[in-house]
Write a structure and sequence with these properties.
The protein is mostly beta strands.
């Protein structure tokens, strides 16, 4: 459930002698006491009591049994909100029980642009009698309400060329070399120029060539320019929209590429609903050990410290957040209790490059501030959709939760209605698609074989955390077909960063069928282990990558690997072979020094004998192409 910055902790107590419900609350904002909270108790249209907490943050409300109450909470910083206490269905023989209940009441800031304050026309929380001896929350209602508080990004909407050009717009696109979408022009300054050649705004590309400008009037823009400093065979720079529509090629002249664009072309760069992804890995360390920050909660908070997203790190401490709006302030947060005294938390990129450590406290959580513009930290955290994997899972019932629909073949389709995977529901009606390429939109379908669905009037879709997502009316003789709304997709899908080491450290489970290719002997994992030119010393950045692999080997004590070092074709073959052999041995020595048994690692240098591309001797290649051949491959030898 989403947690918000302004909280009131309540205890609901049924006092047997007076047959009353006593509410005891503690008003909090960002984990600090909050005063001057207005409280009004209503039964129907009748106001039963009204008071203000004044200089105190604690309060108590005594209510009679047999009624339905609305309790309103107000504070100048927040919208007026109310909760419901349903106390009219408690039998007389149950009023002698001592009943306790505690919850956090989610007040929010009225100026928070991520919060939809209109939802507070309904009760934000409902407390009911469980029919036995307790006052409990109405889980279905409360979970459904919580999902509506945070505004959903318009992730699939696009700007159109018919818009008025005289208004502020967001322009976003990508740049690549040689019309090759895989040769990104990364970490370069990019400028918007007006009709007089003056620079209107400057940004920089991230590691996959993407850029973003906000607050732009397209009618004032005539050109886009990027400083490429390309050498060798990189003679053409290509400009694309964010959806890879080619807007033109430009030769590199004096280190710059420049495009003159018409207004219709500029509007192809327009995406006023543009959002991006950020992701990385968390590693905790102390004087005694370093370990993945695995299976821990990570929160994305906005500038008001509202928790707008929450995710759990995977087995190698990786996380990813979607719908990051440009030019906003965010905080990455973790629970302070997840770190022991003296332990620090480091943030790494997807490629295991150290970025920084969590360095501040926000709303009682250990935190790190992120600005979503083209600064170095944000660009290092930016993640393209191609770098994300997803799981899709749900449970299907007929009419009610007592009728799970098992043995039903579910098809997963992409936005072109092409089948990309299939799964069979188990006896509990649950299906799961594991570790698939990320899709913004997808569809679910199932054939009504043997009329298995025709005994039901309605088909119910529940999320993996047992929340109702959709109720669909079933027509006899028809197949099951579900086109989830944008707001429903997030309930069906879990996303994570792709990493080939992930299954290697899951000791408790055998490898899933779709992962066995990774575990099979002879399969290789390429990592970016950097060395200085003609040297075998490991760089500080590469030690972060090796530390990850050491953690994997420590988590899977049976795993054996080969460290294979490869060079490019520059220089003579014999020298390259000796250099690669020295580098492979250096990597092994580092891993053995850090606790890995020497018998679990074979070190071997291959020199230039196994190039990945055309870049053999005397073949013209640019530096990017040569860099593909300078690599360390970790080959799985088995367990």
């Amino acid at each position: 459930m989403v947690r918000f910055p302004l909280l009131i902790s309540l205890a609901v107590l049924c006092i047997s002698l007076n047959a009353q419900i006593t509410l005891i609350g503690h008003a909090m904002i960002n984990n600090s006491p909050l005063t001057q909270v207005g409280i009004v108790v209503n039964e129907g249209t009748t106001i039963l009591k009204s008071f203000n907490t004044q200089a105190k943050s604690d309060f108590k409300i005594v209510l009679d049994f047999g009624k339905v109450y609305r309790i309103y909470f107000s504070h100048p910083k927040s919208p007026v909100m109310f909760m419901e206490v349903i106390g009219n269905n408690i039998p007389a023989e149950k009023k002698s029980y001592l009943m306790t209940y505690e919850l956090n009441v989610p007040f929010v800031y009225k100026i928070d642009e991520d919060v939809d304050t209109t939802v507070f026309t309904s009760a934000f929380h409902r407390v009911v009698f469980d029919g036995n001896r307790l006052m409990v929350e109405d889980t279905s209602y409360n979970n459904a309400f919580a999902k509506n508080i945070i505004r959903k990004a318009h992730r699939y909407e696009k700007g159109n060329t018919g818009k008025n050009l005289e208004t502020s717009r967001t322009l976003t696109g990508r740049v690549c070399f040689n019309n090759d979408k895989n040769e990104h022009i990364r970490d370069k300054a990019i400028e918007l120029l007006d009709k007089s050649g003056n620079t209107v705004k400057t940004a920089s590309t991230n590691h996959f060539g993407q850029f973003c400008f906000t607050g732009i009037n397209p009618s004032e823009i005539s050109r886009i320019r990027i400083v490429t400093k390309c050498h060798g065979s990189c003679t053409v720079a290509s400009l694309y929209s964010n959806d890879w529509a080619n807007l033109g090629n430009s030769p590199v002249v004096n280190g710059n590429s420049e495009w003159t664009l018409q207004q219709t072309e500029l509007m192809k760069l327009n995406d006023d609903y543009f959002t991006s992804n950020i992701g990385g890995k968390l590693v905790s360390s102390s004087s005694k050990e370093k370990k993945f920050f695995a299976k821990k909660d990570v929160y994305l908070c906005n500038k008001y410290n509202t928790v707008i997203q929450k995710i759990q790190t995977n087995l190698i401490g990786a996380f990813v957040f979607q719908d990051i709006k440009p030019d906003n302030t965010y905080h990455l947060c973790i629970n302070k209790s997840d770190l022991v005294p003296g332990e620090k938390l480091d943030l790494l990129t997807k490629e295991d490059v150290f970025i920084t450590s969590f360095d501040t406290i926000v709303a009682g959580k250990q935190a790190l501030r992120i600005f979503s513009n083209s600064n170095k930290r944000f660009n290092e955290l930016s993640v393209d959709n191609d770098e994300i994997k997803m799981d899709v899972k749900a449970t299907i019932f007929g009419d009610n939760v007592n009728n799970p629909i098992g043995k039903l073949k579910i098809l997963l389709l992409n936005d072109d209605y092409e089948v990309i995977d299939s799964a069979i529901t188990d006896n509990f009606g649950t299906f799961k698609f594991k570790y698939l390429p990320f899709l913004k939109r997808f569809y679910l379908s199932a054939e009504n074989t043997d009329n298995i669905l025709d005994v039901f009037k309605n088909i119910l879709i529940y999320s993996s955390d047992d929340n109702l997502i959709k109720i669909m009316t079933h027509q006899k003789g028809n197949k099951f077909s579900y086109s989830p709304l944008n707001t429903e997709i997030s309930s069906l899908r879990d996303i994570e960063l792709e990493d080939p080491w992930l299954e290697l450290i899951d000791e408790k489970k055998p490898a899933l069928p779709e992962k066995r290719a990774i575990l099979a002997p002879g399969k290789s994992i390429v990592e970016n282990i950097l060395f200085e030119n003609n040297k075998a010393e490991i760089s500080a950045q590469s030690k972060e990558v090796l530390d990850k692999i050491i953690l994997v080997l420590n988590a899977n004590k049976q795993l054996k690997i080969e460290v294979g070092a490869h060079t490019d074709s520059k220089g003579d073959a014999e020298t390259n072979l000796k250099l690669s052999d020295a580098r492979a041995k250096t990597v092994k020595e580092y891993m053995v020094k850090n606790g890995i048994e020497t018998g679990r690692i074979i070190a071997k240098g291959y020199g230039e004998s196994k190039l990945l591309n055309k870049c053999q001797d005397n073949t013209p290649c640019n530096e990017t192409e040569h860099a593909q051949n300078r690599r360390i491959e970790f080959k799985v030898l088995g367990e």
